[in-house]
Here is the input.
Amino acid sequence: MIKVLYLASLREQLCCDSEQLELGPELTDLAALTARLRQRGGVWEEALGRGESLLTAVNAEVAGPRTRLCDGDEVAYLPPVTGG
Here is the structure.
């Protein structure tokens, strides 16, 4: 089981701040997890389809698409931050 967090504006866009997901054999890395979530379609595909501009972290450390996932991991998705 992994915990997935949706931070900042993603939380509002997805109407979800977190969820628990079973870590099956197809979810080996962050890219596979993102693809699975995007398959939900609609707002999920739009929100998580930002590619390079979407920040991700595994266990509070910045992570890339090929970061391996393990049982008990905490994954966070964070939209790009702008400021002035």
Remarks:
- Residues 2-78 form a domain with the Ubiquitin-like (UB roll) fold (CATH 3.10.20.30).
- The helical segments are 9-14, 30-38, 42-47.
- The chain has three helices and five strands.
- The mean pLDDT is 92.
